Amino acid sequence: MAAPRYKTLVDALASDIRSGRLAAGTRLPTHRGLAAQEGIAVVTATRVYAALEAMGLVSREQGRGTFVRDIAVPAGHGIDLQVVATDAVDLNFNYPSLPGQADLLRQALRGVAGSGDLDSLLSYQPHRGRPQDRASIARHLRRRGLSPDPDQILVVNGAQHGLAVTVMATLGAGDVVAVDALTYPGFKVLAEAFRLDLQPIPVTPDGPDLDALARVCASRPVRAIYTMPTLHNPLGGVMPAAERTRLIEIARQYGSLLIEDASYAYLAEDPPPPLAATAPDITVHVTGLSKNIATGLRVGFVVAPPHRCRRSNAPSGPPSGTPRPSPPRSPAAGSTTARSTSWRRASGTTPRPARRSPDRSWRACPSSATPRRTSSGCRCPTTPAPTG
Ligand SMILES: Cc1ncc(COP(=O)(O)O)c(C=O)c1O
C-alpha cells in the first residue's frame, strides 16, 4: 500500500534535514506555502510540520514561522544521549517544556540583546554575579520562603556547578558526606571527582532515616549532609516540617554542613520552609533555572551562610582566565565564582579527619586558562553532566 502523501513529505523533509541539505536555521515555507508548493491541503501541511517537530527536526516560532532545528542538539537536552523513539516518553532528563515558554524567552532575550547594556553583558562579569542580578535572585528566592541578603548569593552555571562550588569551597578529599541511599547521581559523580567519602543513609517516605543518620553522625565525623528535602530526585518526596527540624538539630549537634539541593523545589505546593530559611548559618542552598525555565541557560544560584561570605564591596580578584601571579591562600575553590567568594571552612565543632590530600595549592591547568586547585600534578575535575 502506498504511504500517505503527508508521510512521504515528512520522510523527504526529514531526510533533507538529516543530510544537511536543509541547514539548521533555514526558514521553511508557511503552512499555506507548503500546501501550495506540494499540492496538499493546508491541514496536511500543518500535520507535516507537527510530525517534523515531534521528531525534533524543526521548531515552530509563533509569529515567525517554522525553522530547521540544529540537530546536533537533540530536542529537549543537549547532553550526549541517544534520542529516544518519537513515540516513547524520554525519562532520561527532566526539563521544562511549557507551551509558549520558548516564545516568552525569545522576547526576553531580544529585550536583553536590544538593550544598551549588551556590551557590558558580553564582558567578564563579577565573579559572584552582578549585584543587580543577585538582588533580583534574592527577590525571586523570597517566593520560595528564603530571605537571603544579595551578598549571600552566588550566580553559577547551573545547580550542578553550584554543588561543585559548594564542595570545593567547604569540603576536602576524605571528608564524610551523608547522602540518601538513593540520591541524585550528579552528586555521586562530584563525590568521586573530589574524593569525598559518601555515607549512604537509608531512606523513608519522609526523607532520610534520621535515627540512622544520628547513629552515623555519632560514630563518624560527618562534615556535610547532602539532602533534597523539597522534591527529592529521584524519589519525589517532600520532607515534613518535623523531620526538617530534627535534621537541623542533628546537623547542629554534630557540626555538619547542610547542602540543600532545591532544584525541583518550585514544583512542590506549599512545602515546609527550606532548611536554609530555618538554619541559614549551617545551610548552603543550591538551586537554579534548568528545571523551570530552560536547561540551556544553565543558570544556578547558591545561597551561602552569611558568615562564609565576603561583603560585596570587598575586591573580587582578576577575571577568569587571567593568570594569577601567585597562588591564593584561600581554601575557596577552583571555579571563578568560588575563588572570589572567600568562603571559609567553618571553625568546625566536629574533629576533622586527617586529609588524604592536604596539598591545596593552585596550578595552571594546561587544558584551561583558569588555574584550578589540584592535589598532585594536573587533575582538572570538570563539572560533570548531570542526569535527572
Ligand atoms: C537534584 C538535582 N540537582 C542538580 C541538578 C543539576 O541542575 P543544573 O542543570 O541546573 O546544573 C539536577 C539536574 O538534573 C538535579 O536533578
Q: How would you portray this structure in words?
A:
The protein is of the alpha/beta class. The protein has two domains: 8-72, Winged helix-like DNA-binding domain superfamily/Winged helix DNA-binding domain (Arc Repressor Mutant, subunit A); 124-373, Aspartate Aminotransferase, domain 2 (3-Layer(aba) Sandwich), CATH 3.40.640.10. The protein has twelve helices and 14 strands. The strands form four sheets. Strands 4-12-11-10-9-5-6 form a seven-stranded mixed β-sheet, with helices on both faces. A hairpin with a 3-residue loop joins strand 2 (58-61) and strand 3 (65-68). Helix 2 crosses helix 3, helix 7 (159-170) runs parallel beside helix 8 (185-193) and helix 9 (210-219) packs parallel to helix 10 (241-254). The longest helix is centred in the first third of the chain and has 15 residues, at 5-19. It is elongated, with a radius of gyration of 24 Å.
Distance between the termini: 43 Å
CATH topology of the largest domain: Aspartate Aminotransferase, domain 2
Total domain units: 2
Shape: elongated
User: Spans of 5+ residues with little confidence (pLDDT < 50)?
Assistant: 315-387
What is the helical fraction, as a range of percent? 25-40%
**At the fourth CATH level, what is the homologous superfamily of the largest domain?**
Type I PLP-dependent aspartate aminotransferase-like (Major domain)
**Structural class by secondary-structure content:** alpha/beta
Strand percentage: 5-15%
Q: Can you give the mean pLDDT?
A: 80
Query: Order of helices and strands, N to C?
Result: HEHHEEHHHEHEHEEEHEHEHEEHEE
The CATH class of the largest domain, by name, is: Alpha Beta
Computed Rg: 24 Å
Q: What is the correct CATH architecture of the largest domain?
A: 3-Layer(aba) Sandwich
Query: What hetero molecules are bound to the protein chains?
Result: pyridoxal-5'-phosphate
For the secondary structure, the number of strands is: 14
